[in-house]
């Protein structure tokens, strides 16, 4: 009878009402235990192991990647279970596990804990770039700010850091949307000071001047700036006439809106500095675009005529001023000349008077000669010698005497 058969007989004997107390009873129990362990091991070997190396039936050699994975698994087992290569309780030797920590696992746990601690401490390193500021929070409360460079803070959850750009110029667009018509276009209509409606879009340029106020005053600073800018632009345009807003008043509106918005954000303690508010476009509603275009054309013509008038003004005024200055200078020169002549005549008359009083005859003759010279120098004269004139027929050419004094037949001279 085979060993298996004996085992079956032993089982049947054990199931009988009388218990067998022969010398083979303990041996049978050990045999049954060995068979049960062997069956459990067979079942375990039949179960596929995802970590075991799989043979590739299409290739005759081994797989280098699988060998590397197996070697790594063996290394981990050696560290964890004391060099046996198998976990305790699998029946294949290796480290023993008797109610405590497996042999050799303390070293692995220490290395693992040390590596985790180093990694945790390393999470506190951070870098702040140029133009940025790091804000360190300890349990949610700001404790300090950091300058550009490599910095460190306590790892989470003790401290966290927020790196914020403070030198960048930020922009927020508002006003007229890209879609035209509908509710979105009607929402951008702004009432002007003369009760007209205009569409507008604008850009707000701003920087951060206080990073703590910027981060912790408002939940959404960008949205707060956008809403405040829209309110301010509506207020300023509401105090401006439509024609001024549609033409040359955009710069004035932007400057006024910037001033009011900066005061408002300072009251909110937002930590924001408004650099500029640029009105990109101000347009009338689409229902009156044609009329507005006609208005713009007339304004262009008015500007053209205005420029021409200014050019003519710039040309004619200097000429008139030059002529006026010339006339004034000539009048002044004439006045000075006449005054000088009058003074000279007065001095000369005084001298003649003194000479007349001293020598009356000579003075009278001198006056007579001077008078005759003045008269005869302005008249046409014909002088005939007495010796020659006796045989000449006296003829008086009246027509020629009426002619110009520059006639070659007429000679000027003084009478004897």
Summarize model confidence as the mean pLDDT.
74
Note the overall shape: rod-shaped
In the CATH hierarchy, what is the class of the domain at 170-284? Answer: Alpha Beta
**Distance separating the two termini:** 201 Å
Major sheet attributes: 4 strands, antiparallel
SSE pattern: HHHHEEEEEEHEEHHHHEHHH
Q: Tell me what the CATH architecture of the domain at 170-284 is.
A: 2-Layer Sandwich
What's the quaternary structure here? single chain
Count of runs of 4 or more consecutive helical residues: 12
- In percent, how much strand structure appears in the residues? 5-15%
Q: CATH superfamily assignment of the domain at 170-284?
A: Band 7 domain
Helix content: 40-55%
Number of strands: 9
Uncertain parts: 1-24, 50-62, 88-101, 177-182, 406-416
Structural class: alpha+beta
In brief:
With 416 residues, the chain is of the alpha+beta class. It is built from 12 helices and 9 strands. Among the domains are: 59 residues, no CATH class; 41 residues, no CATH class; 115 residues, Band 7 domain (Tetrahydropterin Synthase, Chain A, 2-Layer Sandwich), CATH 3.30.479; 35 residues, no CATH class.
Please tell me about this protein's structure.
With 416 residues, the chain is an alpha+beta fold. Among the domains are: 64-122, no CATH class; 125-165, no CATH class; 170-284, Tetrahydropterin Synthase, Chain A (2-Layer Sandwich); 368-402, no CATH class. 52% of the residues lie in helices and 15% in strands. The protein has twelve helices and nine strands. The protein has helices at 3-15, 25-46, 64-81, 105-122, 182-187, 211-216, 221-238, 242-246, 250-268, 289-358, 360-376, 398-402; strands at 125-128, 132-138, 141-146, 149-152, 159-165, 170-175, 189-191, 197-208, 272-283. The strands form three sheets. Strands 6, 7, 8 and 9 form a four-stranded antiparallel sheet that branches. The protein has a three-stranded antiparallel sheet with strand order 3-2-5, with no helix packed on it. Strands 1-4 form a two-stranded antiparallel sheet. A hairpin with a 5-residue loop joins strand 7 and strand 8. The longest helix has 70 residues, at 289-358. The radius of gyration is 62 Å and the shape is rod-shaped. It starts with a helix and ends in a 14-residue tail after the last helix. Mean pLDDT is 74; it is low at 1-24, 50-62, 88-101, 177-182 and 406-416.
